[in-house]
Design a protein that fits this description.
Blueprint (H helix, E strand, L loop, with lengths): L1 E6 L5 H12 L2 E3 L9 H6 L1 H25 L4 E4 L2 H14 L5 H14 L8 E6 L2 H11 L9 H16 L5 E5 L9 H16 L6
Parallel strand pairs: 1-3, 1-4, 2-3, 4-5
Helix pairs in contact: 3-4, 3-5, 4-5, 4-7
Amino acid sequence: MHIAVAGNIGCGKTTLTRMLAERYGWQPRYESVSDNPYLADFYADMKRWSFNLQIYFLNKRFKEVVEISKSQEIIIQDRTIFEDACIFAPNLHDQGMMSDRDFANYADLFELMMSLVRLPDLMIYIRSSIPTLVAQIQKRGREYEQTMRLDYLQGLERRYEQWIAGYQGALLVIDGDNCKFGERPEDFVQVTDKIDAQLFGLFPMV
């Protein structure tokens, strides 16, 4: 089984992935950050490094999808290949930070990969407003993220909402502004109750 956690930068994906992996005994797959050779360069000069970064993520995420499809474990994944291709790359292209040529090349590669990729058994989307995201990005204090442009985050937010509005698979949406699952145990219980309802039918949806 494949569970995925999606959402904008700073929404709490990694925290929720870790907590759910511990709660259910699922195998976590975290987004590569500390060993990413392009991330710091990208935030310093998005236009120069956007294509390199997105190809890096696409490669990593595709390898993960192939591994997940072969695994007998229940795996929970922090961010998916769909977010890279449907949100991050198009947002960079829209904002003039990825050329038409590079974006067309990227899109062709993604379409080829899609012949081998299926949707997760459950997609968990954390919906957070820009003020919440900015506060959490500042709180976690990653130096390379402190120069992130606000319009970049806003563009991602619009793309996420468009993507989720048309999503065709099993979906659970969490209100990241009000559901503080990482801070309040009762909020985390609300999340797990909804997951149990989606996956096992144990509780009525509220």
